[in-house]
Design brief:
Distance between the termini: 57 Å
Radius of gyration: 21 Å
Number of strands: 10
Order of helices and strands: EHEHEHEEHEEEHEHEHHHHHH
Shape: globular
Mean pLDDT: 93
Largest sheet: 10 strands, mixed
Structural class: alpha/beta
Helix content: 40-55%
Length: 339
Amino acid sequence: MTRISIIVPVYKAEKYLPRCVESLLSQTYRELEIILVDDGSPDNCPEICDGYAEKDGRVKVIHKENGGVSSARNAGLEAASGDYITFVDSDDYVDGQMYEKMLSVAEEYSCDVVMCDCVKEFSDRREVYSHDIRSGFYNKEQLKNEYYPHLLIMENVEYPPTISNCLLLFKRQQRGRKKLPRYVEGVRFSEDLLFGAELIYSADSFYYMKNECFYHYCMNSDSATHQFRPDKWNDYRKLIKEIENRFGECPDYDFHEQIDKVLLFFIYNAVGDIFRADSLSRSQKNKAAKGILKDKTVTELFRRLDIKKLCIPTRLKILTGCYARPTLVPLISAYMERK
């Protein structure tokens, strides 16, 4: 019988971990391997993980030194033995029929990758999160024609559909692929982007279960994604280098324009976080923003980028033009403070 490996990186999540694991153990599809990767968590998570392993033989626990989510997911990939693999974040949870329904589609269409949608859970509301691509089955030719144009980034400089790796169910072994991709270790922001893109690029088939919202993404304000980090730009530089290495010279598609847009997106994120940071003075914000905008990689991007042709709102085009001139940073900073 087909087996699914579910990899759960665990770090400082004792408040949410039981809800997450219980949602996996109660799946209607029972042939599961639940791999809890304790990433050196300093709270009670290691004991909680071991407790679940003692109660249910489907649960496997890996204890390791802290190395970040990319390292934890890689450790889970090394240990996974299922025919299909997926991820769940330890502060999220899933609907009871998620994997039964996704596997049914995967087997019906012989799919390498299946993707569903999710619900974003805020403290005061819930939002369905979907993507602006068509639903249904894609063969290899359809992937090249319809999906590759936004494999790395959407045309409007937003994350691509597979940015949420937890919404993907994918084959562990695949024809024409030597091994599964791995995450870039040490990268804590947007680490899903490259992994998801590599999965789809190597896939011969894909199915999008549009508006099938099985996954519950809980918007935790304490997570790394939602905090200002002074070294975020260093992570982005490392990630864009890996993206260039893996997609800069593909024989069957030219991804150079998308790579530039990914870098631009990283600039928006990193500089935007600086201007929104309450912990920084205006002078500190100006210095940090100029440090990014004067980066050689960034200045070279703005020399070859035609801002007028970007599919972004006019206001963002104006802001992008300002970013291309670091001397305007003090004006941008003052404007952001008045908003």
